[in-house]
Amino acid sequence: MNNTISNENRLALIILAVGQSLVLLLLHKAINHTVWPATAPVWLHALYTAAIGLPLFLYLGATHWRERANGIAAVILGGVLFWLGWHNGWLSTPLLEDAGYQYKGGIFSLGCGLFVALFILAFFFRTWREHGRLDYTGLLENSWRNALTLSFLGLFILVFWLLLFLWSKLFDVIGIDFFAELFSEPEFIYPVTGLVGGWGLGLIRSRESMIATVRKLCEVLIRALLPLVALILMLFLAALPFTGLKPLWNTGFAASLMLWLAAILLYFFNAVSAEHEQPFDNAPWLRRLLLAALLLLPATAILAGWSLGLRIDQYGLTVARLWGAFVTLFIGLFSLGYAALAVLDQRLHPARFRRWNTLLGAALASALVLVHTPVLDFHKWSAQSQVARLENGSTKPEEFDAVYLRFNLGTYGTDALKALQASAWAEDDITLKNRIDTALTATSRWQRQTPAQQDDTDWRRAQFRLLPGTELSDEFLEALAPAEHGIHLCMAGDAHCILGDFEYRGQRYRVSTSTRSYHRLSPAWQWLDNEWHLIGTVRRFGCKGQAGVDLEQAFTPIDSSAFFLFSNGACLYQLQPSGSHVRKSLIDREN
Prior knowledge:
Elements: H1 7-32, H2 41-61, H3 68-92, H4 105-131, H5 136-173, H6 178-183, H7 186-205, H8 208-243, H9 246-251, H10 254-272, H11 284-315, H12 319-344, H13 350-370, H14 378-391, H15 402-408, H16 410-421, H17 424-428, H18 430-440, H19 451-454, H20 457-462, E1 464-466, H21 474-479, H22 487-490, E2 497-504, E3 507-514, E4 521-528, E5 531-543, E6 556-558, E7 565-568, E8 571-577, H23 579-590
Parallel strand pairs: 1-2
Antiparallel strand pairs: 2-3, 3-4, 4-5, 5-8, 6-7, 7-8
């Protein structure tokens, strides 16, 4: 057993972890009591970001705690983290005080992005302190060491809390609820978790030779799976000339699958060739297989980028698409670099790949920081793109998704809507003005109309597009319950819902769908006892190619003994009765 951390450094880890937990406890209490900094989102987010991110970096990157380099790194990184959190807080600041809504979508992005960036920076910093340079062997060792350390630490804390849960339940059974109440108090949870986490981290880092053993086992298992990954990639690309690219574009998630496959191949290849100068010389067949896979690898990034580009060209930039472009860019850079290096050195010596990995690793960490600053914020780019498409006519005013800007783009989206609202264009276009006004007065992304508007029969009628042979009575509209699942989406004020009537086996049905492809479930009714009854939902299986709902064609039932299917144009649907409707039908049949 090899101890690599002194008692002094282990104590420093515990003190840092407990100190971090106490700061987080104070922030938690501030939120509960609605006092500063909870009342100032910019301060709250900035303090949270620094309180979580800075200790994480030191846990993974610092080795000897008395070194001046740790303090310098902490000051610089702490300032950067505070700035990033401040910007995220500004993005979440509610500019419309009467709306009661605060954007929080940027928190997940910031958390994930900074975790990856700090993970990379930590093993870069530790390697530099240990070797005096960015030695690749050291980088690889520290990346594995940090990843496994975090995994074991998470498992250790999880088991600790499971034991406390068992403790509380055992005493709860015999009527003693003291421990259950104690263990659920924030004043207990935060400091105890910090203490246990710091203690566990010291235990793990004092036994890093055991972590090296686990790493060796992982590399052996990865080497066994590497040929399978390469084979999957080659077979998939070989099948595309026969199937064509159209099935890829129709799925909507093909780009993600291809990027996952490319990322796994890149990771497995690096894990296998980590510490050996000629890792494939004893297996020429594997080297040839990997050579072919690496040469074909850029095709996955190109296809993923093409698929993403089609979406962007059709609908403009969104935060999700920009993140997709970000991932595609870096996987594409890794893939192109590996393919070029494989051409230059067909024996696949790892030394060439190591320099490329180091360069792109540093670039990735830097980029993950920059995209959370005002310089490259994806929310800003998305807001500018959506407004630009409206201005150049790519998006019609009646199709402008003002709600997306309001609820998905934070302050950037709200500012863009307010600028449009004050423009002469909005004054002249009543449709555009209504969509903007509706979004800005919304309290949530789903309930975007006031109850008074939702109760107006004429307003409700305007929310539906009707297929041929369908008429809406006032009684049907008045009976709609906006709180019902699916119906509340139609009451959002966007007029995207479509209704159509048809007869099937002597019964009248009214079903709904949407012009939006991501709305897969929508309500369905049946004419019973001289009125429409909500009986379940309609599931849309999809449409052929890029086809949508044909507003000139009624729904057509498809005769099927097992499934209630019907179609419209090139789209296929299925009616799915609710459990209560099925039970009622069985009772009626027995009577």
